[in-house]
Design a protein that fits this description.
The complex is a heterodimer of chains A (386) and B (130).
Chain A lengths: L4 H7 L5 H16 L5 E3 L2 E4 L4 H17 L7 E4 L7 H16 L23 E3 L2 H11 L8 H10 L1 E3 L13 E6 L5 H15 L4 E4 L6 H14 L6 E2 L16 E5 H10 L9 E4 L6 H14 L7 E5 L1 H9 L2 H7 L2 E5 L14 E4 L2 H9 L3 E4 L2 H7 L2
Chain B lengths: L1 E3 L1 E4 L2 E8 L4 E2 L27 E4 L2 E2 L4 H10 L6 E4 L4 H10 L3 E3 L11 E5 L4 E4 L2
Parallel strand pairs in B: 3-5, 4-6, 5-7, 7-8
Antiparallel strand pairs in B: 1-10, 2-8, 3-9, 9-10
Helix pairs in contact in B: 1-2
The chains are: A alpha/beta (386), B alpha/beta (130).
Enzyme class (chain A): lyase
Organism (chain A): Thermococcus barossii
Catalytic activity (chain A): (R)-5-phosphomevalonate = (2E)-3-methyl-5-phosphooxypent-2-enoate + H2O
């Protein structure tokens, strides 16, 4: 891989230990994946935030790095944090403080694009949350690989990333065409379709035909579910996403999704209400429009929920919901908006036994943690919930 | 026997080989306190990688595995060097942040546990005692 004079000096340690380590990571990855050079990035999104995931080893690494003077050189945000008992929260705060010392915005969300980390078409990024990666690549037309925590941090510090994978035009082409011959209309239909495709396709770049999503949240959910059950980082939807018109230039294999495929996912997550003791909306983190819809549905329901409703969202979206009065309405009906955290990365086993959600991604993870799961659209959930 | 691979992390080391024929996960697969392999699917389960030259085909599992390699180093239980068939992000990043010499492109099927190995990662060279 070609390095500029300055990059060589950084690698040789002339700019200190932290930059040297960061550059070593980027150069090693560049060599592994055959990059020709490093390219500048516009922003970074860093995974490895929940103490449940990184543990004491992660804290130690981050502390050593921050003590060595590591500082990010591009706008950088964090993945959601976890919530747990007092001991857990103390460690969790240490993690956030270490990231803050490195100059990172400690807004911790899987939807940084609902705040100030909103890339534009063609921007190169180093993002590391699978649903955010899918959103940036597919819906915005920005370019990022699926980074791991340390590689996105290294890229944020150097301000560059190796030029390989989804940064290159040729790897952004579709590898399979998906004919959707099923009724896919609601949030959960998109979720179920994504879940099915992730399992069926692995790490393909699918080109989907036959979808007319009525809002961007449906596409967000489609991508999140695909990235959770598979490792899809980019998809195209004919007539909808910004790169679809140049995504196909070969004869591609075509697969068909039928009504029964989507229904099978919904039926796989249909545990009885008697086994559900919490409602969870906001995976990926809810938008203001989703929160507004919940407030209106609760007002129509007219009686408080007997089981708690948790809505996870970014701090930016929560602030807007507060200002517009939605938070107050939701709290009146036994709901809470919890900013900057994620239940999937929280040690909450034992707190609850069953979760009702509209997210295929959460359904997938909570089932794997041994929870009962009910997957349905938010209007049905809020109508039927005890 | 001399093998030639590619430098991932530079440095030199000498020690006893421990060879896994299967891909290795560090998160949940290796105890960072003791260096003992705990991965239920591993063929070197129950053995320690501390102070050895560790060889395996490739890494697998969560990207948090990089931090486990860092913790092994901090706890004095890290391998002296890492040899792999194919480098991927998790192990490469772990070896870099922990400063463990690492070479990829090594045909692990030719190696046997218990042999002495000399690793010159700067040159990508591995020498195994016959």
């Amino acid at each position: 891989m070609y390095l500029t004079k300055e990059e060589e000096l950084i690698l040789a340690g002339e700019y200190g230990y932290a930059l040297q380590k960061a550059m070593e990571i980027l150069v090693a990855l560049g060599e592994i994946y055959g990059a020709d050079r490093l390219i500048p990035i516009k922003s970074a999104q860093i995974a490895g935030v929940s103490y449940k995931n990184i543990g004491d080893a992660g804290i130690e690494f981050l502390r050593d790095f921050a003590d060595a003077g590591a500082k990010v050189s591009v706008y950088t945000t964090l993945n959601p944090a976890g919530i747990g008992d007092d001991e857990f929260m103390e460690k969790q705060m240490q993690v956030l403080e270490l990231y803050r010392r490195m100059g990172i915005e400690t807004t911790s969300t899987c939807t940084p694009y609902y705040g100030a980390n909103l890339p534009k078409f063609g921007d190169h990024l180093a993002w590391s949350e699978s649903s955010a990666v899918s959103f940036a690549n597919s819906i915005l037309g920005a370019r990022t690989n699926r980074e791991g925590g340390p590689s996105s941090l290294a890229a944020a510090i150097v301000g560059k990333t190796p030029n390989y994978g989804l940064h290159l035009d040729e790897n952004r082409k579709a590898t399979v065409v998906v004919e959707v011959d099923a009724k896919v209309e609601t949030f959960v239909d998109y979720s179920a379709l994504g879940y099915h495709l992730g399992k069926a396709l692995g790490n393909d770049v699918p080109y989907l035909r036959g979808l007319k999503p009525s809002n961007v949240e449906y596409l967000k959910e489609l991508g999140a579910a695909m990235a959770a059950s598979g490792s899809i980082a980019l998809y195209h939807v004919e007539g909808e996403t910004p790169e679809y018109h140049r995504a196909i230039d070969d004869r591609l294999e075509t697969i068909t999704v039928e009504e029964s495929d989507v229904r099978a996912v919904r039926e796989a997550f249909s545990d009885d209400w008697s086994e559900i003791d919490m409602l969870l909306i906001g995976c990926p983190h809810a938008s203001l429009a989703e929160i507004k819809e919940i407030a209106e549905l609760l007002r129509m329901r007219g009686r408080p929920l007997k089981i708690p409703l948790f809505i996870t969202a970014s701090r930016a979206v929560k602030a807007l919901a507060d200002a517009l009065g939605y938070t107050e309405t939701i709290e009146r009906y036994n709901g809470r908006i919890i900013p900057d955290v994620c239940f999937v990365v929280s040690p909450i086993k034992g707190w609850y036994g069953g979760v009702a959600t509209n997210s295929g991604k959460s359904a997938f993870y909570f089932r794997s943690f041994g929870f009962k799961v009910r997957l349905d659209d938010v209007d049905n959930l809020l109508k039927e919930a005890p | 026997m001399k093998l030639r691979g590619r430098k991932v992390v530079g440095g030199k080391a000498e020690g006893e080989l421990i060879v896994s024929r299967k891909p290795l996960s560090f998160l949940g697969g290796v105890d960072p306190e003791t260096g003992i392999v705990t991965d239920a699917e591993s063929d070197i389960r129950g053995q320690s990688i501390a102070g050895k030259i560790l060889a395996f085909p490739r890494g697998k599992g969560s990207t948090v595995g990089s931090y486990v390699i860092y913790a092994l180093k901090k706890n004095g239980k890290a391998p002296k060097a890492i040899l792999v068939g194919e480098a991927e992000t998790i192990v490469a990043t772990g070896a870099i942040i922990a400063g463990i010499p690492m070479v990829d492109g090594i045909d692990v099927s030719k190696l046997r546990s218990g042999k002495r190995a000399t690793v010159n990662a700067d040159e990508g060279l591995v020498e195994i005692e016959e």
